[in-house]
Amino acid sequence: MGTMCNRKNIFNGLGLLCFLLLPPFAIQSEQEYLLSLFTRILIYGLAAASLDLILGFGGMVSLGHAVFMGIGGYSVGILAFHSYESLPLLSWPFVLNGTENALLAWPFAVLVAALFGIVTGAICLRTKGMHFIMITLAFAQMAYYFFVSLTKYGGSDGLSLYNRSVFPALNLGSDISFYYLCLTILLVFLIIANRLVRSHFGRVLSACRENEQRVQVLGFASYRYKLACYTFSAATAGLAGVLLVNQAEFISPGLMHWTKSGELMVMVLLGGMGTLSGPVLGAATLLLMEDFLAMYTEHWMIILGPFLIFVVLFAKRGLYGLLMGTGGNHD
Amino acid sequence: MTETLLKAKNLCKHFGALQVCRNFNLQIERGELHALIGPNGAGKTTALDLLTGLLAPDSGTLLLNGRDITKTSVNKRARLGLARAFQVTSLFNSFSVLDNLMLAVQAQQGTGTHFWSRAAHDRKLVASATSFVERMGLLDRATVLAGNLSHGERRQLEMGMALATKPAMLLLDEPMAGLGPGGTLKLSELISSLKGEVTILMVEHDTHAVFALADRISVLVQGEVVATDTPKMIKENKLVQAAYLGGAK
To answer: How far is B89 from chain A (nearest CA, A)?
Structure first.
C-alpha cells in the first residue's frame, strides 16, 4: 500500500513536471510543433479521462463519447460564426447573438453538451451491456449526420474560425498561454474526478459497475447515480471539444464520428481503465506514437495495432498498471 | 395481539406457460421468524423476488405495514425497510469487507449523493460499518476483498449487508446453502441472535435448522402456500407430509 502510494505520487509528479516544462523546452529547441502536439494530448487526455469516469468507474461502455466533444466544439464554432456574420443565432422567443467571448461561449457549450448528455443518457441508461454500446453509438452517428447535413455551417467540410475565443486577461492566440490553460483545466478536472470517485457517490457508482441489482436492493436509485455521472462526463467531454476547436481553429463532423469515440476508448484501455490519470498517459502514448511512427511509414497502424493488443492482453490496468506494478488497483 | 408487517394477497406470476406462483398468500407478523419451505421448484426464490420487487406479479397485492407496495420499485422498497440476502451471494467482489458494509450503511444513512467528502474519512460511516463487521465475526478479515472470502464468510457478509441497512424486515434466501456443519451452526446462532430485533422471512432447505429456528412455517407447493403453522403443527400436518416430507417422519 505504501509503495503503491509512492509510485503513484512519483508518476503524477513526474507527469506534471514534464507537462509544465514542455513549453520552455519546445521553444529552446525550436520545435514549436511539439507545443501544438502536446496541447492536443492535454485535450484528448481530458476527453479520455472523462470517458474513464463512466467506463472505468460506472461500467458504462459508451461508443459515442466523441459526440459530446463535437457538440461542445460546434457550439463554440457556431456562436463565433454568428458573431463574424453579425447574425443572431436565435431571434425568437428571445434574441441570442453570436459571441467570441470565452466566458459566455464556453459555459454555453458545456451546458449544451451536458443537456445532450442528460437527454440521451436518460434513454441509453435504460439499457445495459451490448444494447448500451449500440444506442450510444446510434445517438452519436445521428448527431454526426445531422452536422454533415448542416450546410450553413460547412456541412462535411467543417467550419473554420478566424481566431480563438477571447478570454479576459489572457491572450489565447498565444500557443503558450493556451497550452497552460489546457493544462490547468485538465488538472482541475483530475482533482475533482479523484475526489468524486472516492466520495460516497463514487462508491455507489463503482458498486453499480459490479452488481447494479444489488445496489438497488440496498436502496439506491442506481439509475440516477449513473445518469448524474454520465452527464458530468458529457459536460467534460464538451469542454474538451471547446478546447480542441480553439486549438485547431476548425471543426468538422469528423470529430464526432464513431472512430473518434473508438480512439478515446483506445486511449482509456491503453492508459488503464479506472485510473483517471492513466487515460491521459494513454492519450499521450497514442498521439506520440502516431506522430513518431508516421515519420517512418504511413502504415503506422501496423505497429500500433499489435502494441495495443499486447498492452490490453498483458496489462490488467494498461500502461498505468504496468508502471504501478501489481496490476495497479486503485485505492 | 400481533401486528402484521408484510402481507401478500393472491400474488400470481407465470413465465410463459409455467405458473410459478398461484394465489400466493402470506402474512408475516412483526418480530417473528417465519420460514418458507417447499420442495425444489416450488417457487420459493420467485416468491422472494416478488416480495423484493425484482419481479412484478401478474396480479395480486402486497402490503408492507398496511401500505400497498405492489408497484413500488426495488430501491424504494429497500428504503421502506425490506432487505434481502441472496441465495447466490451477491457481494461487491472488488470491495473489501468493510467497504461492502460501508456501502450498505451509506444506503441507510442516505449519504450516497455526497460527492465531495471522502467516504473513507467519514467517521460515523466507518464506525457504523465496523460495528457490523464485528457483529458478523469478520473483524480480522475487514480489509480482505469480498472476492477472496471463503463461502461461509461470504454468507456472513451477505447477512451483514442486509442487516446494515437497518431493515424492518429481512428476507433470507437459503442462508445455509452450501455450508458445512460448522458454518451452519455459526449462521444459525447469528440468525437466532437477530430474533426479536428484526422480522425475518427465511427460505431454507435445511429442515433441521428451520424447525429449530422458526416461530412459524409456511409450506409452498407448486407456487401455492398449502399450510402456515408452528413447527410442531407443521410436522403433524398430513397435507405437508404428503407433499413435502414424503411421509418419512
So the answer is: 10
pLDDT tens-digit profile of B69-128? 999 999 999 989 898 888 766 899 999 999 999 999 999 888 888 888 888 888 999 999
Query: For A102, how many CA atoms within 13 A lie in the half-sphere containing its CB?
Result: 18
Q: Of B141, B166, B191, which marks where a domain is finished?
A: B166
pLDDT digits (tens, 9 = 90+) for A251-309: 999 999 999 999 999 999 999 999 999 999 999 999 999 999 888 888 888 888 899 88
Q: Residue A76: what are its φ and ψ, rounded to 5°?
A: -65, -45
* Short-list A75, A298, A61, CA closest to A165: A75
Q: How far apart are CA B88 and CA B101, in angstroms?
A: 18
**Placement of cell 405495514 in the chain:** B65
Model confidence, pTM = 0.88
Domain extent at residue B138: 90-166
Number of domains in chain B: 2
**Residues in Cβ contact with A288 at an 8 Å cutoff, skipping those fewer than 6 apart:** A37, A41
Do B207 and B158 lie in one domain? The reply is no
* Residue from the list B73, B94, B111 with its beta carbon closest to the beta carbon of A200: B111
- Is A219–B161 a contact, with Cβ atoms under 8 angstroms apart? no
Q: Are residues B177 and B156 in the same domain?
A: no
Residue B109 and residue B63 share a domain: no
- The domain that contains B184 carries what CATH number? 3.40.50.300
